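This is your field. Please look over both lines of this record.
***
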Amino acid sequence: MAVIAALGGLLFGYDTGVISGALLFIQRSFELTAGQESTVTAMLLVGAAIGAFLGGRVADTLGRRGTILLGALGFIIGSIWCAFASSVFELGAARTLLGVCIGGVSIVVPMYISEMAPTHVRGRLVSLNSLMIVIGQLVAFLTNSALAASGSWRLMLGLGAVPAVVLLVGMLILPDTPAYLIREGKPGKALAVMRQMHGPDAELDQAAVAEASASADQRAAERAALKTPWVRRTVVIAMLIGVTQQVTGANAIMYFAPTMMNKVGLSTESSVYTSILIGTASVISCAVGMSIIDKVGRRRMLIIGLIGCAASLLVLAPVYGLSKDSAVGSVASLALMTVFIVFQQAAVSVATWLLISEIVPNEARGLGMGLAGLALWVANWFVAQAFLPMVEAVGGAWSFFFFAVTGAIALVFTLRAVPETSGKTLAEVREYMMAAAR
C-alpha cells in the first residue's frame, strides 16, 4: 500500500528532476533566453503551489484515493503533452498541469499513508514518500544521461507517464482510508478496510473517528483559530521553515547543475552526466538523515544542515568563478555542489516537513499545513524563476554567494524561533509554542 501510494512521490521527484538535463536540449529546439528557461522550469512550481493549497480540500471531496487517482491521470496527460509540445507556451502549460498534480500528491499521499498505516510503523512509511521523491529525481537523472547522446528531450519528459500508469493501476486496487469512509457515512466499509489492513481483530480507532469530524465547520474553526496570537505565530514559523528549505538554493542546484557545469566548459552530454552524482548523493543522504533524525533531533539537524549548506556555497562561489575551461576547477565545483546536496538532503530537507507537521497545532492543522506548503512552493518558484537570470546578470559565483547569505539568514531564524520537537509529544510541543508566544 505504502509503496504504491508513494509512487506519487517518485513522480514528484521525476518531474522536478528531469528538467535539469532536458533543459539543455529544449534550449536548442526553441532557442530560449535565460528568462524563458527559468519560466519553463518554474511553471511547474506555480502549479505545485496551487495543487498543494487545494489538495486537502479536493481530498475531502473526492477522497484520498480518488485524489491520487486524479493526480495519476493528470501525470499521464501532462507527460504526454510535454512530449508533443510544439511551442514554449505549450510546454509551459503542460508543466503547469504536472505541477498541480505534484502539489496535490505532495499533500495527499502522506495523508493517505498516515491514515492507513499501523501506528508503530506510521513514521517510517510516511517518510517513504520523502525517500521516493529523491529516488524519482535520481531516476530522472539516469534517464537524462541514457538519452543524452540522442538529445531526445521529448522522450525524457514523456517517460514520466510510465510510473504514472503504474500509480493509476495500483490505486485502482487499493481502498480509500477509513477516515474518509467514516466521513462519507460508511462505517461498515471503513471497518472492513481496517481489518483488511490490520488484521481480523482490528477496530476503528479514535484517530479515524476524530478525522471524520473534519468538515466545512472545522475549516471555519481553523480560520477563526488563526486570530489567536500564539496559533498565528506558530503557523507563520511553520511557513518560514518551509521557506528556509528553499532559500538555501537547493533546487537551483537540483534543477540547474548541468546548465551551470555546461557554462564552465563541460560538453552538453558530460554536463547531463554530472547530475547522476548529485542524484545518487541525494538518495543516500536522505536515507541516512531519516535513520538518525530521531536520535540527533529535528532542530539540531536543521542547524547542522544550514551551517553545512552555507559553508559549502561560500567555498563554491570563488571556486566556480575560477572554473572556466578548467578541468580541475570543474571537478572541484561539482564536488562542492555534491557536498551541499549532502547537507541539504540529509538534514535540511528531512527536518523541514517533520518540524512543520509537529508544530502546527490541531486548532489550525489543515489550513496551517496548506499555508506552509504554499509558502514552500512559492519560495521554490522564486528560486527557480530568478536563478538563471541572476547568473546571467552577476555570474555564477555571486549567485552562489547570494544563497550562502540567505542560508545564513535562515540559520539565524532557526536559532531564534524554531523549537526542538524531538522526544516531545504533540501536546508538549503545543504547550511550548503557547508559552513562547507570551
About this structure: The longest helix spans residues 327-359. The chain has a mean pLDDT of 85.
